[in-house]
Known about the structure:
- The structure is a single chain.
- The chain is mainly α.
- Helices cover 46% and strands 10% of the residues.
- It contains eight helices and four strands; from the N terminus they run αααααββααββα.
- A two-stranded antiparallel sheet has the order 1-2. The chain has a two-stranded antiparallel ribbon with strand order 3-4.
- The longest helix is centred in the middle third of the chain and has 15 residues, at 97-111.
- The chain is globular, with a radius of gyration of 19 Å.
- 8% of the residues are buried.
- Mean pLDDT is 89; it is low at 158-165.
Amino acid sequence: MNPTPPTPISPEQRMKYCPIVRSLERVGERWSILILRDAFYGITRFDDFVNSLQIAPNMLTRRLNSLVEDGLLEKRQYSERPPRYEYCLTPLGRDFRPVLLSLVTWGNRHFATEGKSVVLQEKETGRQIDPVLVDRSSGEPITETTHVLVQRRPAARTAGAAKAS
C-alpha cells in the first residue's frame, strides 16, 4: 500500500509546525542536552552541574532557566539560608530519555573511534543493550525501508489548541 501523498504546505508552515523545530527550540543547544544528560545521571544541584560540565555559571543559569520555563526541569528550593535550589527532571524531561539514548547509540556507532565511553546495560544482569526504535503497536523495528515520514498540514483545531496552551 502506497502512503497518501503529503498535502503541500508552505515552508513557513513547515517550520512553524515541524516537531523537530519545536523540539530543537527547547533542547537544540549543546548545553541543554548535556544538562539533561547529567540530570539523568542524578545531578540536581547548580554547583554539581558546574563541576560536571565545566560550564560558566552565567551560561548554566540561562540554560537551567530555559529548561525550567519549557517544563523539562522543575526548580525546587532545598535551603533557605542561603537560598539554594535543585533542578529535577519533570515527566516532560524524563520523556527526553529515548532521545538521549538514541544520541548515545548514534555517537557510539559513528564517532567513538577510541571505543564506547557510555553504554546502556540492563540493571540486573549488566548485559550491554543495543537500542533500536520500534513501533509500539507491532514491536517491529522502524527502518528506512519499512517506514516513511509524512508531512501533513495540521488540523485547524490542533493549531488553535497549540496557541491556547
